[in-house]
Amino acid sequence: MPTVGIRIDGLRIVIYPNDHRPAHVHVIGAGCEAVFNLHCPNGPPELRENYGFSSGKLSHIRTALIAQLAVLCAEWSRIHDLH
After folding, report:
1. d(CA 83, CA 77)
2. Nearest 10 degrees: CA dihedral of 77, 32, 29, 71?
3. What DSSP designation does 68 have?
4. Is the separation of the CB atoms in 2 and 14 below 8 Å?
5. Measured on CA atoms in the order 34, 30, 12, 64, is the torsion positive or negative?
6. Burial call 31-63: b when 16+ CB within 10 Å, e when fewer
7. Cα separation of 51 and 8, whole Å?
8. Distance between alpha carbon 16 and the CA centroid of its chain, in Å?
9. Are the C-beta atoms of residues 25 and 35 closer than 8 Å to each other?
10. What is the pLDDT tens value at each position of the chain, 83 positions in all?
C-alpha cells in the first residue's frame, strides 16, 4: 500500500493505486481511518468517511491536508498515471 511521503502525527497518508475517483486519501493510524476527498487542484479537502477519529483530530488532519494539498494532488496524479 503506497504511503505518501507525508505523515500527520505518525498517521499514514495512503493513496491506493487501484482506487477510484475522485482523488482522495486514506488517513490511517491509532486504530482509526478516515477518507478525505481532495477536490484537486484547489481543495479544500472534505471528510468522506471516518472510523474512530475524534472531531478535534479530524480538524487537525484536515488542516494538515490543506497545507499539503498540491503535493497530495500531484501524488494522486502520479500514482494513477494521469499526467
Report:
1. 6
2. 20
3. T
4. yes
5. positive
6. ebbbbbbbebeebebebeebeebeeebbeebbe
7. 17
8. 11
9. yes
10. 576 778 999 999 999 988 889 999 999 999 999 999 999 999 999 999 999 999 999 999 999 999 999 999 999 999 887 65
This prediction has a pTM of 0.93
Q: 28 pairs with which residues across the strands? A: 12, 33
Please report how many Cα atoms fall inside a 13 Å half-sphere around the Cα of residue 62, on the Cβ side: 18
For the stretch 55-64, contacts whose Cβ atoms lie closer than 8 Å and that sit 24 or more positions apart, written own/partner, are: 57/32, 58/34, 60/8, 60/9, 61/8, 61/11, 61/27, 61/34, 61/36, 62/36, 64/6, 64/8
Domain boundaries along the sequence of the chain: 3-79
Amino acid at position 65, single letter: L
